[in-house]
Structures are given as C-alpha cells and as structure tokens.
Design goal:
heterotrimer, A mainly alpha (268), B alpha/beta (328), C mainly alpha (297), B: 328 residues, alpha/beta, D-Maltodextrin-Binding Protein, domain 2, 2 domains, four-stranded mixed sheet, 13 strands, C: 297 residues, mainly alpha, MetI-like fold
C-alpha cells in the first residue's frame, strides 16, 4: 500500500515538533537541576501539600463520578422519561464548555453569596475557596467519562442473562451486584481512570474556585505556575515534570485497563 | 480545506502585520494588574494630544510581566508598582542600570500606600493593622509571591509590627503569622483579590493600594464600602522605565520617552490623582488634598534597607515568606 | 439507544420505586452540576439587559478576541486534521516498529495539565529557552503572538482527530484499499475515493471536537499569550480579563458566546452520532488508548 513515507513523515514531524520537543525542553530544564536540588524542590512541604490536595480532590471527584456516572448511564439506558434525549446530549457539556467559563460559572454558583453557596452556607457548608470547591470543579470537568464508557456496555448487555438469573430466583439487588456489575467493571475502571487523569490535569476551572491557599487549597499545576512567576524557572520545570510523570503513569494504567477490558469483551 | 488555510493565512497577515512592523506610532505598555482603568484614561488623553498614536496595554502581576518581557514580550515601556521587577529586567539586560535617573522622583510619577477597604459601617471596627490579627477578622490580599501589591501589604504590616514590638523579631513573626492565618483566599493578582472581596463577599477587610480602594468604592457604590487609612503605612512607588532593548530594536525611544514624560505633566498627574494616586505636582496635589487623609509613610529604604535586601531576606525561595507559608 | 421492548418480563431495576428514585436523583444532581452553570452564565450575561450585552460583545476588544480565537482555530484545526489523517493512515494501514509508542506519545496532551504545556513551550521558544535567542536574532516572534497561541492550541488538541479515525480505520481493515491499489489506483485516488467516504463522519466528528477545544483553551494559551489587550487575548482569556475588570456581567457576556459555541458543538455531536460517528464506547473528548477500542462485531 502506498503512502507510508508521506503519512509517517507528517506524523513524526508533527508529534516531534508539537508534542515531543516542548516536553523534552521541559525535562531538560528540570534535569539541569541535579538530583539533590530536584528532590528538594519536588519534596518540599508545600509541593507535597499540593500533591495531597490535588490527588485527594481528584480521588473524591472520581468516586463521585463513578457513582453518579453509573447511575446516569443506567437511567439513560434502562428507563424512558421525558427529556431523556436532552439529558443524554447535555452530559457532554463539560467537555464542550471551556474550562475557564466553567470556572467562573461554578464560582458564581457556589460562592457564599451565590445561588447554592448561600443555601449551603446556612447549613454551615463552605464550597468555594475550600477543597470541596476543587472537588466540584474536578467532578464537573470529568463528569462525562464514566457515563460514556459504561453506557455502550450497558446497552449491549444481553437481557437473557438477567432473565436466567431471575428464573433462578435472584432478587434485583443480587442480580445487579453479582451479574450486572461484574460485567461493567472493565468499563467502569476505564472510565474512572480517565476521570482521575483528567481531574489531576485540570487547571482553568479550579483556579477560580479554589482559594489558592498554600498548604491547603493550592493545586500542583498552580504551584508550578507560581514558581514561574517567582522567576524560578527550574523549580517550575521540576514541579511540572512531576505532573508530566504522573500523566505518563496514568496513561500507562489506562492503556492496561483498556486492553484488559478489550480482552474481556472479545471473550464474550 | 485549502481555502480555509488561505483565508487563515491572509487573516494572520492582517493581524500579525502591525504588531511586527517597525511602527513607531505604536507603543506597548506592560503594567501591573490594578492599573487598568488608570491607563485607559491616560492613553486616551495621550492619544488626544498625539494624533495617530496607539498605546496597547497589557496588565498582569508585575513579576509575570517582567518575566514575559525577559521571554520576548516586546513592551516598549513598563509602568510597574515595584522596583524589584524592573531590577529583574536590569539584570537581564533589558533596562539600563541607572533607569531611576531617567525621570523625576526616582522614575516614579505618582505614589500610593497599602490601605484598607471595609464593608459599610465598618462592622468589625477595623482601624489599624493591629485589628487585622484579631481572631474574628478575615483579611483579603493576594499572594505576595506573585503580586507586587501584596508585597507592599506584607512589608507595611511588617513595618508596623517592628514599630509596635520594638524590633522584637519573634513577636513580629508571630504577628505576620497571625495575619496570614486570617487570609481565607490567596489570589494571584490584585484584581482577583478585589473580586473575591467585592463580588464574592468574602472577608472583612481588603488590603490593597489606596488608589484601588478608592476605585472600588467609586465603582461599586460609596454606600457599600468605606476606606480606612491605617495610622502608618508604606510608601508604594510606581516606577516607570523604558525597555531599552525593545525601543532600540523598534526605534520607538522618542515616543516611549514622550509617553512616560506625559505622566509627569499636570494633565497626567491630574488623571493619576483622579484615579486615587497621590502625586508630586504641587498644584494638582493641592487640588485633590481633601481626598487623601494624612498618613505617616515609611519607606522600604528606611525600614528594610532597600529592595535588594527585602528580596533576599523576605521574598527569595526559603526566605521569611516561605517560612511563614511552610508553617501553615 | 435500545428502548426496552414491550411484553418483556420486567428487568432488573424496573420496579417503579427504584426507577423513580434513580431518575429523580440523577436529574437533581445533573441539574445542580451541569444545568445550573449553563443557566447562571446566561442569566448573568443578560442581567444588565440586552443592550449592555450587545455593547460588550461588540466592543472592539471583544470583537478582536473573537477574531483571534476564530483565526487560531482556522489555522490549528486544519493542520491538526491533516496530521490526524496522516497519523491514522500510517498507524492503521501499515505495521512498523514503535507504532504503539507513537500512539502513546501522541496521546500525552490528553492527560497533561495545559499549564505544563504552556510552561514547556516557554522553555522552547522563550528568550531563556532553547531557540529563544536565535528566534529573536532572526526577528521571528513566536511567544506572545499568534504563532505561540496556535502552537499551544495544537499541542492540547494534537490527538483529537487521529483518535476518532484510528479505531474506525482499524475496524475497517485494509482490504478495500489493497483491492483499489491492486487495480492500479494511485495512493491519493485510493484515499479520496475509497477511504475518505468511509471515514468522513468520524473525521468531521473529530474536527468538531478539536475545534471546540481550540476555541476554549485557557491554561496553555494563558501562559504563552502575553495578555495584550486587543492583540493577543483569545476569547477565554478575554473572559478572565473582563472578570477582573470589575466587569462580571461583561465577562459572562463573553462567556456566553463560548457557551453558545459549546451548545452548537453538542448539537453537531448528536447529529454526527446519528451518522454513526463516535460510537464504540469511547468518551467524547478523551478516550484512552485508541488502537483497539472498536469492538469486533
């Protein structure tokens, strides 16, 4: 078949120029620090606190998305109700809406004087400018992942499986947890890992709603940004490289889960 | 697809053209975050006097601006709120070493000071720096690491504490620790902090330049906020400089000089005063006297021994500020 | 979407109580988390009346921001599309060592914070970076000008088109193209008359998603733009600028333009999905590893 030199040439040139070159420059800059300084910067108390708040918030947001995404996918596949197509379409809004816009909209809603913030404030829950705000921003921006990975699997689920389980006397709960859920696990895992990766990388939506307090509501991407503002290029590169490595690891995990999920579907 | 690319290229040429061309009727002024309205007025007035001249504006935290210039942002002039950030440009060879001699008053056409803005009626009864460390008070100012505005706040609070505690460093540090404990949100720039205080209604007192506190009161209604001037504050200079490397390349030195000179003319001074800045021009200063309450101002040189020392002791990585963050 | 057929025994979760609870809960949470932001943007944008809204979005700086955003998309999206097609062709029609690695590298922009992308570009084209001095000497402006914004946008959207195409072309196999070439068709002819008709909806789908992301990118562009009013402010940056200009309503007005764009994207997506694009269980804007995601029939 013709076209290999041209298509591969374009591909390698583009990937090289647009993706590899900048990332290499970043790694190069971070590497110029030497191992000791590098370690000192990436393991400083403030950096560690930023990893903690980022990972913890991403974790909570992902758990929420796991539950909500599963419920939403279930409702969209199994039930008929007015406005269902609208709901199905609007699930993708968080992907289509620019994150900065999402950020100011969520902040306006959840600030102490916002629609939700004022109600929550009365029962003593603060959202904006606390880790809870970061979680909501993350949950919003990664909302569609679980829904969109689970939905097709749920659609293709063979009704005969459930019928068989029902004739064997299974209750709804037991059939769901012992027959249906295991079939969804690979898709759930794939969706969850995507959702988690996306949450770790989110920036635009979060800086508006997080309080940006060092040690408590400062996410890692912001810390890299702040180091840059302080003219500390190497430290910025070092912290950014931590984000880069995390992204690599997440990608590898996603790949692994995906290929396992695939093996699973093929076997069925 | 090809047609799209062609149209795109044509549009690109239109857009990028004027910025790249050698066009000495155009200046880029890189300025600090809260100076937006000020320079809208200044640029209008200047353009009215100099037909055909356009002044482009870029606003952000001054560290970010200085960094952007060092990375290639072609700003002809800088109008900052901080000597340190111009010194950074000096170190990188963008601004000549004796820039402070280029214009009067050490190249600072006007000045201001960190001042307080409280909600109307002053419900928490905030009068001075000592009130800011009370347990029931929430204070808003941006992150001193990224905002020149907040660096003045931090230094003014330190200067106050040094006077109050007779230079007992442990007590000064405790005071600053408490102050930072009372900050619920750390925004990266002065404007974001204003938004937090005004729009989000968070915090009891906003600390920012006096000029900004007046602007806010004007913008959002004098009935919603009150300006409180503390007993002592820090002189905040607003240094301006010509970016030599850029003007030499673009051939815009004369225009840049005329633009910065304009800030010192009575008209320029008046605009600055109207936007809440204290000015050195005596006639203009007299005219706006009622707006500016008496306040005792100390300087960075007097209290801290100069900006170099401040940078090294307080703001550098591992400095006093990092120690305060580290403990929180 | 498979509607539950009538005359079938009730399936799991079909009892009215479960049904009602789940639907109510999901709709309530969805309304709070997804619908409310949409509503708040639009109500805030018009909170000072339509004339103020019109004034904001026709102000010179806003107009310029819109123009710049469109221009960026006009450059970044076609280039990305060419790359996407080339990458999909190379990866699905040939076997060569390192295919998988190439895919993973091309996917990095998905899971990386856009801030990291922006910072990385500084280290390449900034004066302190690898080529900064050389570019300055040659008087070529990349950062703080259109090229920088376009490059950063291309980075964040690099995999968008490719990964819509790869699974589809993988599933379609190589038989048709091989037949065409063995009958003497040239490579280009084969592509245009055999491959393209089969992938056009997926291609369009990828282009729509890529375009939405390019126009909405904030973090990466924010680092490389220089924030010059009326010059290097894209629409998302302009939203932030107005937001900090004491002009919240204006910010929401500008944001509402982007929101309308998002709604159009969703409509386009729904329409394209009816044509069969974007199926196969991959989430819209960020699927994982693209190679085998299509299920064998």
């Amino acid at each position: 078949m013709p076209g290999l030199p041209l298509s591969l040439g374009i591909t390698l040139f583009y990937v090289g120029l647009i993706v590899v070159l900048p990332l290499a420059a970043l790694v190069f800059k971070a590497a110029s620090l030497g191992p000791e300084d590098y370690w000192r910067i990436v393991s400083s108390a403030r950096a560690v606190a930023s990893y903690r708040v980022t990972v913890l918030s991403a974790f909570v947001a992902t758990i929420f998305n796991l539950l909500f995404g599963l419920a939403l996918a279930w409702v969209l596949v199994r039930y008929e109700f007015p406005g269902k197509r609208f709901v199905d379409a609007i699930v993708d809004l968080p992907f289509a809406l620019p994150t900065a816009v999402a950020g100011i909209a969520l902040t306006t809603l959840f600030a102490p004087n916002g629609w939700f913030g004022s109600i929550l404030g009365e029962i003593g829950i603060k959202v904006a400018y606390t880790p809870l705000g970061i979680m909501i921003a993350m949950a919003f921006t990664s909302l569609p992942f679980v829904v969109r990975t689970v939905q097709p699997v749920l659609e293709d689920l063979d009704p005969a499986l459930e019928e068989a389980a029902q004739t064997l006397g299974g209750t709804d709960t037991s059939i769901f947890s012992r027959v249906i859920l295991p079939l969804l696990v690979p898709a759930l895992l794939a969706g969850v890992s995507l959702s988690f990766a996306r949450s770790l990388g989110e920036f635009g939506a979060i800086i508006f709603i997080a309080g940006n307090q060092p040690m408590s509501t400062e996410i890692t991407a912001l810390l890299a940004f702040i180091r840059l503002e302080e003219y500390d290029y190497q430290a910025a590169a070092a912290i950014a490289s931590v984000l880069l490595i995390t992204a690599f690891v997440m990608l590898a995990v996603t790949n692994l889960l995906q290929s396992r999920a695939l093996r699973y579907t093929v076997r069925n | 697809m090809k047609r799209l690319i062609l149209i795109g290229a044509a549009l690109a040429a239109i857009l990028a053209g004027p910025a790249n061309a050698q066009s000495p009727n155009k200046l880029l002024n890189a300025s600090y975050d809260v100076a937006r309205e000020l320079f809208v007025s200044v640029n209008e007035a200047y353009a009215a006097q100099h037909a055909g001249v356009t002044i482009d504006q870029s606003h952000a935290g001054t560290s970010r601006q200085a960094r952007a210039i060092a990375e290639g942002l072609e700003a002809d002039v800088v109008t900052f709120n901080q000597v340190t950030d111009i010194d950074f440009l000096v170190k990188n060879g963008f601004v000549s070493e004796d820039w402070q001699k280029d214009f009067a008053n050490q190249s600072s056409p006007f000045y201001s000071l960190p001042s307080f803005l409280v909600r109307t009626g002053n419900p928490k009864n905030i009068k001075d720096w000592s009130d800011l460390v009370r347990d029931d008070v929430q204070v808003i100012f941006p992150n001193p690491k990224t905002s020149g505005n907040a660096r003045y706040t931090y230094l003014a609070a330190t200067a106050y504490a040094r006077e109050a505690f007779g230079n007992d460093e442990a007590k000064v540090k405790e005071f600053i620790d408490k102050l930072f404990d009372n900050v619920p949100v750390f925004d990266t720039g002065g404007r974001a902090a204003t938004t937090t205080f005004v729009e989000r209604e968070i915090g009891d007192v906003l600390i920012t330049f006096e000029a900004e506190t007046r602007g806010i009161a004007k913008e959002f209604g004098e009935d919603k906020f009150e300006v409180v001037t503390p007993s002592v504050s820090l002189l905040a200079e607003f240094p301006v400089a010509i970016v030599d490397r850029v003007v030499d390349k673009r051939g815009s030195r004369d225009l840049a000089k005329s633009y910065l000179d304009f800030l010192y003319t009575p008209e320029g001074q008046k605009i600055a005063a109207e936007h809440g800045h204290r000015v050195n021009d005596e006639t203009v200063a007299a005219e706006f006297k009622d707006q500016f309450p008496e306040v005792r101002l100390v300087t960075v040189e007097d209290v801290f021994g100069g900006w170099d020392k401040v940078q090294e002791e307080h703001f550098a990585a591992g400095g006093l500020l990092d120690q305060i963050y580290g403990e929180r | 979407m498979t509607a539950p057929a009538r005359n079938r025994p009730p399936r799991v979760g079909d009892s009215p109580a479960v049904r009602r609870t789940l639907i109510t809960a999901v709709l309530a949470i969805g309304a709070v988390l997804v619908l409310a932001p949409l509503v708040v943007i639009l109500t805030q944008a018009f909170s000072l009346g339509f004339s103020y809204f019109a004034e904001t979005i026709t102000a010179p700086d806003t107009r310029h921001a819109i123009l710049l955003t469109v221009l960026t998309a006009l450059i970044a999206v076609p280039v990305n599309t060419v790359f996407g097609i080339a990458a999909a062709w190379a990866i699905t029609k040939f076997d060569f060592p390192g295919r998988r690695l190439l895919l993973i590298v091309a996917e990095i922009p998905f899971s990386i914070s856009p801030i990291v992308a922006g910072v990385a570009y500084l280290f390449v084209y900034g004066l302190q970076g690898l080529f900064g001095q050389a570019l300055q000497d040659a008087d070529i402006k990349i950062l703080f000008a259109l090229p920088g914004i376009v490059l950063a946008s291309m980075f964040v959207t690099a995999p968008f088109v490719a990964r819509e195409l790869i699974p589809l072309m993988q599933a379609q196999g190589r038989d048709l193209e091989e037949a065409a070439t063995s009958l003497g068709a040239s490579g280009w002819r084969t592509f245009f008359s055999v491959t393209l008709p089969n992938i056009r909806w997926a291609l369009l789908y990828g282009v729509v998603l890529c375009n939405a992301r390019v126009m909405g990118e904030f973090g990466a562009v924010s680092v490389v733009s220089g924030n010059i009013r009326g010059q290097t402010n894209t629409l998302p940056l302009h939203v932030e600028l107005l937001y900090h200009d004491y002009n919240t309503v204006g910010a929401f007005a500008a944001a509402s333009i982007l929101t309308v764009l998002a709604i159009f994207t969703i409509i386009a997506k729904v329409l394209l999905e009816r044509q069969g694009a974007g199926r196969g269980g991959r989430p819209a804007l960020a699927a994982p590893n693209a190679i085998p995601a299509e299920k064998p029939q």
